[in-house]
Amino acid sequence: MILLDHVTKKYPGDVTAVDDLSLEIKEGETFVLVGTSGCGKTTTMKLINRLVDLTSGTIKLDGRDITSMDSYSLRRSLGYVIQNVGLFPHFTVERNVGVVPELIGWDKTKIHTRASELLTMVGLSPEEFAVRYPGELSGGQQQRVGVARALAADPDVILMDEPFGALDPITRETLQSELSPLWNELDKTVVFITHDIFEAVKIGDRIGVMDNGKILQTGRPADVIKQPENETVSSFFAQHRFQLELLTTRIEPLVEAFDESRIKRDKNTPWLHPHDGLIDAMDALKISDDQKVPVYDSKKRYLGIISHETVTREILNLIEQ
């Protein structure tokens, strides 16, 4: 889907922001670039949507060299979400969501229908929020509108540059949990940038660790944490290694068959997604009444349960490794 081949970006003064970077991002995956400030993450994303130009190398989107594409058409074909959202303050929420569809010629009825559909999808009631202005929204609500805007023209690729960086921890965690399954459900290819290692391993199907403009290692979060290829990668995760292992050990293979009708459920009953980690299971089990938590997929189909006994056994296995 996205191929970067020996990509380099240099700025005046011989400053190298991205250094001979080669990377393939697969269709339908959420790929997270993680690294400290100044490592080249944001420059890499800006190269993908041609906000800055390559010094050398090639970037292809679905097999097409992006330098052969009109830059404005390219950007309109990509969803883009940034940290400070960038909503137009004098536009209503509905008009903000409909900016790109309006630019590419959709009629007002189609834009209204699409905006209502997307606001519902990101957890905002169209009846309540469509006519509001950005200044009337909380930071988390503005970020949800930003996500809806990025999805408005139904792009195949979503670029997200530190989208939750300015939010408080509770709102940030809520959006991480709610939006990650959404990408899978919509079958979008997502390129996500963050300096937060917990955010990276929680939402990424694969992660790429960057330093000094180079990709040091790519792979599934659990594999990168448990099998770092060099000392720099190892030290990047070292301080929080055990917590990260709890977060990246997915519960999917631990789901047990159980008759759904026997689960005691009310509006406060916790539930889990198969991509959740052991740490999520621990939190859910703390508030469960019967030592088990139901597991549902992104389409709310029941898969089974996670038990206290299974989670405890798995944690003990991690401690002993």
Describe this structure in words.
With 321 residues, this protein is α/β, with parallel strands linked by helices. The chain folds into two domains: 239 residues, 3-Layer(aba) Sandwich (Rossmann fold); 72 residues, Roll (CBS-domain). 39% of the residues lie in helices and 23% in strands. It contains 14 helices and twelve strands. The strands form three sheets. Strands 6-7-8-3-9-10 form a six-stranded mixed β-sheet, with helices on both faces. A four-stranded antiparallel β-sheet has the order 2-1-4-5, with helices on one face. Strands 11-12 form a two-stranded antiparallel ribbon. β7, α8 and β8 form a beta-alpha-beta unit. The model has no long low-confidence stretch (mean pLDDT 90).
Structure characteristics:
321 residues, alpha/beta, Rossmann fold, CBS-domain, 2 domains, six-stranded mixed sheet, 14 helices, globular
Give a brief description.
This protein is α/β, with parallel strands linked by helices and 321 residues long. 39% of the residues lie in helices and 23% in strands. It is built from 14 helices and twelve strands.
Q: Give me the CATH architecture of the largest domain, please.
A: 3-Layer(aba) Sandwich
Gyration radius over CA: 21 Å
Shape: globular
Unreliable stretches, pLDDT < 50, 5 or more residues? none
Category by helix and strand content: alpha/beta
In the sheet with the most strands, the strands line up as: 6-7-8-3-9-10
Task: Count structural domains.
Answer: 2
Report the portion of residues in β strands. 15-25%
Number of strands: 12
Report how far the terminal alpha carbons are from each other: 37 Å
User: Percent helix among the residues?
Assistant: 25-40%
